[in-house]
Amino acid sequence: MSNISEFRADELHEECGVFGIYDLDGGDIASSVYYGLFALQHRGQESCGIAVSDTSGPKGRVQSVKGMGLVNEVFHPENLSQLKGDIGVGHVRYSTAGASCSENTQPLVLNYVKGTLALAHNGNLTNAPELRHELEYTGAIFQTTIDSEVIAYHVARERLNTRDVESAVKNAMLKIKGAYSLIVMSPRKLIGARDPFGFRPLVIGKRDNSYVLASETCALDAISAEFVRDVEPGEIVTISKDGIKSDKSLQIKKSAKCIFEYIYFARPDSYIDGVSVYNSRIMAGKILAQTHPCKADIVLGVPDSGNAAAMGFALESGIPYGMGFIKNSYVGRTFIKPKQSVRESAVKIKLNVLKEVVKGKRVVMVDDSIVRGTTSERIVRMLKNAGATEVHVRISSPPFLFPCYFGTDVPSSDQLIAHKMSIDEICKMLGATSLGYLDVNRLAELIEGDDGYCDACFTGNYPVEPPKEDIRGEYDQ
Is residue 115 left, alpha or beta, with left meaning phi > 0 and alpha meaning psi from -120 to 50? Predict the structure, then answer.
């Protein structure tokens, strides 16, 4: 086997994952939140947290455990057993904006004149700096550097003048702009809200007499909850002792769901807005085989997100699909470690190439994206060192040309290789025999023709005006 010494150092970072549950029968829910977060661990491995409350106990008493690290590192039987309550919210995080530190862990718990709020947020606000400055000049004192606290402050302020917390969430949504899937826990209610464009996913589930909100359906599966439906873009869902009620008054005509959720971020066993993520990736591979065919002996996917697209390429082309990479499952996703020095130490044990599979073969190597190009170049080199005679690189997304401001850490254009080089130049830099990207005009086929998606990182067509100041990534390079 040939060792790939540095794997994924320039890959994209996830955003975050949110999970909430309310057991209307009054049962403890902390362990369910724990397993739900475990299923969402791929969305963020930097920090995590759980906050719970007892709806029949003292109003506004919230217990929480938060910390830096993986779910199984932060939580253990002792601290989980102390989290007593029938309503709760959880969060896993990668810092797309705001420093990587314990103060920025979520859920955020706010004590204010009307009681207590706990909030978990996935996404990035585009007007967070302006809203933060406005709040600061009216006396607000911030404890974190994340835009989620801006949302929490606005919800708390609006609650002073509204009849209920869901109305406060609605009023706050009228002020904030950008991407947000929210779960808000008040003393007696669990509220889910999705921005009007629906950038980030949010689903509703049910288990016995418990209602669940989660970033992805795979988290519902983890706790044996039944999928009910997606929270629609612009919808506010309120779960209380009276059941579920919905407010869709903030909906707009056209959504802009993140297409990269289907290509890479979401787990392949999840469904987003009724579409199978696995099927989306199979389709991406089939399109690549149609638009960029080649003569080869074997198709390999770069684990894990390239595997399904590689299978699609093999199905369409008739070239056999093979397992040419062995991944060490006990190493975290090295590219979402917060510091480069940590990445460098971890990537060396991430992946191996099976010489027996690639030696003397013409190889098609399928991956989900190329950001800066350094990772892909190393993988191509390792395949050749292992004996591959040709390496045809196929990428199941279009070239990244523009940054993302909506919760995905696509860096500024000057750091994107496709912004600086032509495809032929990138191919030469990678040392590949050929290079083909997914055609941007065929993205709609990945989600069964639905045209309500955001592809701004490929086209520059932002559905929301980009922020005046870019606060992304300065802590995460």
Answer: left
